[in-house]
Design a protein that fits this description.
Blueprint (H helix, E strand, L loop, with lengths): L11 E4 L4 H14 L4 E5 L6 H5 L3 E3 L5 H10 L4 E4 L5 H6 L1 H22 L2 E3 L2 E2 L10 E3 L10 H20 L3 E2 L1 E3 L1 E3 L12 H11 L2 E4 L7 E5 H13 L11 E2 L3 E3 L1 H9 L6 E4 L3 H9 L3 E2 L2 H7 L7 H17 L4
Parallel strand pairs: 1-2, 1-4, 2-3, 4-5, 5-8, 6-9, 7-16, 9-13, 10-12, 11-15
Antiparallel strand pairs: 12-14
Helix pairs in contact: 1-8, 3-5, 5-6, 7-9, 7-12
Bound molecules: 2-amino-3-ketobutyric acid.
Length: about 325
């Protein structure tokens, strides 16, 4: 990436560090900035042994502003990666919880960041789009009228982060993530989770029943690109950023049939069938088929490395090894 222009200010606090993105981002940040410079935190899920052994960990519920402030003061934090959030499927089942965590929790982080002068990364999502949005080559700046609680919190989050930047000069930055695929920590309660589950089931059972229907195209990204993008946007030269919250970023777009066909190149007997979840299917249909991420490419050098073929080969290799060792 071309964003090596600015080293991120350390120390760094990661909220939601035990989640799918947080668990791997924390390790990558520790490798880059030093183990003690990166404070992992979680709300209730215990950290893995790997995460615990790699550096400091704090229990932080972002709905408690004082606890965030205590950690920021104790560790002299300069940058917060705020990853603690409720995903789309769970948000539809528990809308009040989603608002509390995704909005009130995030607002607490922004308030502390303003008082303590921290830069803040807040991920947005393809979920920030909805009916009325052009679904093909979805522009960076376009209609955002989502009809899910997850989407409402994501749009509000983007706007709130922009507000804090414009009004208070806070260094807020964010990305609209697509479905993230990884082989470490499984995601919980998202609409794009099928694209992770399918690899685990391909290895374990050579078949998969998808809750998202054939023909439903969504943007996706492999975890290494997700990690690189989170670091690159925070290291980017602020003078280059016309947008801040949040950039479209994508690495590939596929539907369950295309993904199954790619898996069959490695496991020829693999089969897919469908038991569609109407709630998550409706969510998926309101999201882009494929976003236009040219603003991210132009403003801070976004350039994903992993496509569907390379990701599938790697996912099946890593999960196959884990299966042989009895780990999955
Ligand atoms: C979800 O499916 O809820 C997330 C997302 C795309 O934001 N993975």
């Amino acid at each position: 990436m071309s964003s090596e222009t600015r080293r991120m200010r350390t120390n760094i606090l990661v909220t939601g560090a035990v989640g799918q993105i947080g668990s791997e981002l924390t390790l990558a940040l520790r490798e880059r900035y030093g183990a003690d410079a990166v404070i992992a935190s979680g709300r209730k899920t215990p950290p893995s042994e790997k995460l615990k052994a790699s550096g400091p960990f704090e229990w932080i519920d972002c709905n408690d502003r004082q606890v965030i402030d205590d950690a920021v003061t104790k560790y002299d934090i300069h940058t917060i990666y705020h990853l603690g959030a409720i995903l789309s499927g769970v948000a539809e089942a528990k809308p009040e919880l989603a608002w509390n965590v995704n909005i009130d929790g995030m607002h607490n982080v922004l308030k502390v960041a303003r008082e303590r002068d921290c830069a803040v990364f807040v991920p947005s999502s393809i979920g920030a789009f909805g009916p009325g949005t052009p679904l093909d080559n979805t522009p960076q700046d376009t209609i955002q009228r989502p009809n899910t609680m997850y989407g409402v919190t994501k749009v509000a989050g983007e706007l709130l982060c922009d507000y804090y930047h414009k009004r208070f000069g806070l260094d807020t930055r964010g990305l609209r993530y697509p479905g993230i695929i990884s082989n470490e920590t499984v995601p919980g309660g998202g609409t794009t989770d099928y694209a992770v589950d399918i690899y685990y089931q391909a290895i374990k059972q050579k078949k998969y029943t998808s809750f998202i229907n054939a023909g439903t195209f969504l943007d996706m990204m492999y975890m290494p690109d997700c990690i690189d993008s989170a670091i690159a946007i925070m290291e980017a030269d602020p003078a280059m950023l016309k947008h801040r919250n949040a950039f479209n970023v994508t690495a590939m777009s596929f539907d369950p049939e295309l993904l199954a066909a790619e898996i069959r190149k490695h496991i020829p007997e693999f089969t897919i069938d469908y038991d569609v979840d109407p709630v998550r299917q409706a969510i998926a249909e309101s999201w882009p088929n494929k976003m236009d991420d040219s603003a991210a490419r132009a403003e801070w050098g976004w350039d994903p490395k992993w496509d569907l073929a390379a990701m599938t080969e790697d996912m099946l290799k890593v999960l196959g090894e884990k299966h042989e060792r009895g780990l999955i």
